[in-house]
Design goal:
The structure is a single chain. The chain contains five helices and ten strands; from the N terminus they run βαββαβββαβαβββα. With 228 residues, it is of the alpha+beta class. The chain has two domains: 128 residues, no CATH class; 80 residues, no CATH class. Strand 9 and strand 10 form a beta hairpin. It is globular and about 55 Å long. The two termini are 26 Å apart.
Length: 228
């Protein structure tokens, strides 16, 4: 499984803003209706099992309602401080590359404030083997909708191999950094591709999304000012 994972500063996002951001991101993402089922939310069925119930992703009012429901469930009641928990999911049509996967998640924590390090984050899971051009469109959709400080496409194994500190961004096969983020391009070789778009820079290392070059990921980490 591949994951887009990133975070941003502790800005406060209102509930309608979060719903609009979700709607925009899903509108911009590749539909892939032949690969995944509809987006939905988990609900308790027969008091024992969880059922994935489809939602109308074009209905902002419904999205607001689902975000509020998830937020209050996670918080065990209404929030007394700013912050929303967002959780949607969809199933893969056909066989899974990872049989333990029941659904692919799209989760966000947004609107939280007062933390010393970025606490707001987004995670989107997609199936391994997805075409690189499709992955790039997913990345751009998330960047445009959420304006993260950083966003990376990486497997859990790639993330773990970096032994990162909590304040450090994840670096993946494809990484986005917002404009103004430190990046010493003299510390990466010409196999690392860097392009400007969506208010920041996209960095691509050699290899594949599932198996990127860890040597070049280390180069990017050094360019970002992280210690080896």
């Amino acid at each position: 499984m591949l994951r887009f994972i990133g975070g941003w500063d502790n800005r406060s996002d209102s509930l309608p803003s979060c719903a609009e951001r979700v709607r925009l991101s899903l509108e911009l993402m590749p539909a892939q209706d032949d690969v995944y089922g509809p987006w939905g939310v988990w609900r308790i069925h027969d008091e024992q099992t969880m059922e994935l119930v489809p939602v109308d992703v074009d209905d902002v009012t419904q999205l607001e309602r689902e975000i509020l429901t998830v937020t209050e469930r996670v918080n065990d009641g209404p929030m007394r401080q700013p912050g929303q928990h967002i959780a949607f999911a969809r199933r893969l049509l056909g066989a899974l590359s990872d049989p333990s996967t029941t659904a692919f998640k799209y989760t966000v924590r947004a609107g939280f404030v007062g933390r010393a390090e970025p606490y707001n984050h987004v995670v989107l899971q997609v199936e391994s083997g997805t075409d690189a051009s499709v992955l790039t469109r997913y990345m751009s959709a998330l960047v445009v909708a959420w304006n993260p400080a950083t966003l990376a496409l990486a497997t859990r194994e790639t993330q773990r191999a970096q032994d990162k500190q909590p304040s450090e961004a994840i670096v993946g096969w494809l990484t986005y950094i917002r404009a103004g983020t430190r990046l010493d391009t003299e510390l990466v070789d010409d196999q690392v591709a860097i392009s400007n778009a969506d208010g920041g820079r996209y960095i691509t290392v050699p290899g594949t999304p599932e198996d990127p070059s860890l040597d070049h990921i280390r180069q990017v980490r050094r360019a970002l000012g992280y210690a080896d």
